[in-house]
């Protein structure tokens, strides 16, 4: 069972992002300031946090 769970969590889909020089400098500065060593993990978490926040905001409510 542990093997199947690991297969589901495996990252096999690639996405590419392009930044201009100022954006890249801001990202580098942020990562240095907050001692972020894994930029992929940081960006993945930042993107998914925003997505989940938006899903939560858009969730239909009765009242």
Question: How would you portray this structure in words?
Answer:
- The structure is a single chain.
- The protein is an all-alpha fold.
- The chain has a domain at 37-63.
- The protein has helices at residues 2-9, 21-33, 39-58.
- The chain is extended, with a radius of gyration of 17 Å.
- The protein starts with a helix and ends in a 5-residue tail after the last helix.
How would you briefly describe this protein structure?
The chain has a domain at 37-63. The protein has three helices and no strands. The chain has helices at residues 2-9, 21-33, 39-58.
Topology:
Layout: H1 2-9, H2 21-33, H3 39-58
Any low-confidence stretches, pLDDT <50, length ≥5? none
> What characterizes the major β-sheet?
none
Alpha-carbon Rg, integer: 17 Å
Quaternary structure: single chain
Counting DSSP H or I runs of 4 or more residues, the number of helices is 3
Instruction: Give the overall shape, derived from the CA principal axes.
Output: extended
Strand content: under 5%
Could you spell the SSE succession in H and E letters? Answer: HHH
What is the percent of helical residues?
55-70%
* Total DSSP E strands: 0
What number is the mean pLDDT? 91
Structural class: mainly alpha
Straight-line N-to-C gap: 42 Å
Q: Descriptors for this entry?
A:
63 residues, mainly alpha, 3 helices, 0% strand, extended
């Amino acid at each position: 069972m542990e093997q199947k769970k690991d297969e589901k969590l495996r990252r096999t889909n690639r996405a590419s992002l392009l930044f201009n020089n100022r954006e890249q400098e801001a990202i580098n500065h942020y990562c240095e300031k907050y001692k972020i060593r894994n930029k992929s993990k940081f960006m993945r978490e930042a993107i998914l946090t925003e997505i989940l926040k938006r899903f939560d905001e858009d969730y239909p409510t009765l009242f």
